Automatic annotation (TrEMBL):
Protein name (Swiss-Prot/TrEMBL): Histidine--tRNA ligase
Keyword Plastid appears in the UniProt entry: no
Enzyme Commission number(s) from the entry: 6.1.1.21
Listed GO MF terms: ATP binding; histidine-tRNA ligase activity
Length: 422
């Protein structure tokens, strides 16, 4: 084992990429503000049972992908594979049903799933998670979908496809499940092994299978939309009407069921052609029974999670703008120790004025300090040598124009400020 190499499926987000993440997260924070969602920070691990009951024992996430461990007191804990169950737990634990409903929350951070790593799929990955808890209204489903679209528009993403479906509720799903089993049963031998196992335990999962043969078979499977009860059907209709009112283009996909068992009624994904096999930038839906499943009262909810890595990959693929890459504006170049003392003072005077500035501490020559200044893409190099100290000036070199001037000590800060602003 090479311990100077991160474990498989996890990676460092280096500065060259981290600033892009910061842009995505800052934009998300702004959009959350416009939509009235408040930020929460949730634990990275929870009781294993929260996920096994909440997400569903027969889902891929719970069956194969969780990082579960015993702590020193022998409790079974799991690194969070997603945030919805934790959000609902947080709502219940803090008695949020007493607040104005829906309670609108968002959070961003790392999730952990033991999946086969590939482009856009990692074992530690970040999600932006947005949830509205405590309302049955279809307008809240609409708001969640609109939030995702508004965010992706704000980030400059294009060519995205919104796919939606309704996965029904405990009233209408059993009828559909039977119809699906009848259909699948007549094609049973042609299914992959995984789907043959799913047949009894969780036949809806078969709709989700990525195996080509299974997909081909499932193309003609009955759609749940034809089995929805009146309530689910009306709800779905209203969500779609809302999408039309807001001008959000969407495609209905009768086979969209999503990988987690807690969904009821609306399920949706936003897909990008940029991502290859892992093409979902975001996925979400309604989960009216999740709170009860984990032992709480009835709390309807709806939300989505978007993968930050996939957003950044899509933005890079489409040449989107990430704003300004942070860099330093000023680099101070010193000739000797005496100059260094004066430079230290200037360094902190400038930082106090909120100017980004750096200097060399390693005793490089003036020439290589100037090279560092250009490598760091500083706009100004401020040179302090014996002559400058004697004359009470700083030589300011504009690295953008190549021009140079001597600036008196007492007007130095104002000069730098004016020059950077100009
Ligand atoms: P899910 O929680 O499975 O509904 O996923 C929601 C979103 O999280 C997906 O649309 C992806 O953008 C992202 N995502 C899920 N799993 C991974 C993973 N293993 N690596 C990177 N992103 C992921």
């Amino acid at each position: 084992m090479d311990i100077i190499k991160a474990p498989r499926g996890v990676r460092d987000i280096l500065p060259d990429e981290a600033w892009k993440w910061a842009y995505v997260l800052e934009t998300s924070r702004k959009v959350a503000g416009f939509f009235g969602y408040n930020e929460v920070h949730l634990p990275l691990f929870e009781h294993t049972e929260l996920f096994s009951r909440g997400i569903g024992d027969s889902t891929d996430v719970v069956e194969k992908e969780m990082y579960t461990f015993l702590d020193r007191a022998g409790r079974s804990l799991t690194l969070r594979p997603e945030l919805t169950a934790s959000m609902v737990r947080c709502y219940l634990e803090h008695g949020m049903s007493k607040k104005v409903q829906p309670v609108k929350l968002w959070s961003a951070g790392p999730m952990f799933r033991y999946e086969r790593p590939q482009k856009g799929r990692y074992r530690q990955f970040w999600q932006l998670d947005v949830e509205a808890l405590g309302s049955e209204a279809p307008e809240v489903d609409l708001e969640i979908i609109a939030f995702a679209i508004y965010l992706f528009n704000a980030l400059g993403l294009s060519n995205l496809e919104v796919v939606i479906n309704s996965v029904g509720c405990p009233v209408c799903r059993p009828g559909y499940r039977d119809a699906l089993k009848r259909y699948v049963g007549s094609n049973f031998d042609a299914l992959c092994n995984t789907c043959q196992n799913r047949f009894e335990r969780n036949p809806l999962r078969i709709l989700d299978c990525k195996n080509e043969r299974c997909r081909e078979i499932m193309k003609d499977a009955p759609g749940i939309v034809d089995y929805l009860c009146v309530e689910c059907s009306e709800h779905f209709k209203r969500v779609k009407e809302g999408m039309t009112i807001l001008g959000i283009n969407y495609k209905e996909d009768k086979n969209l069921v999503r990988g987690l068992d807690y969904y009821t009624k609306t399920a949706f994904e936003v897909l990008s052609g940029e991502l290859g096999a892992q093409n979902a930038v975001c996925g979400g839906g309604r989960y009216d029974n999740l709170a009860e499943t984990i032992g709480g009262p009835h709390v309807p909810g709806v939300g989505f999670a978007a993968g930050i890595e996939r957003i950044v990959l899509t933005m890079e693929g489409q040449g989107c703008d990430f704003g300004q890459q942070p860099g330093i504006d000023v680099f101070i170049v010193t000739a000797d120790d005496l100059a260094k003392n004066k430079a230290l003072k200037l360094l902190y005077d400038l930082r106090r004025e909120q100017i980004s500035v750096d200097m060399d501490y390693t005793g490089k020559s003036i020439g290589s300090q100037l090279k560092t200044a250009s490598n760091k893409e500083a706009k100004l190099a401020c040179i302090l040598g014996g002559v400058e100290i004697e004359k009470g000036v700083v030589t300011v070199k504009d690295l953008r124009k190549g021009s140079q001037s001597e600036v008196a000590n007492d007007s130095f800060i104002d000069y730098v400020k004016a020059n950077l602003a100009g």
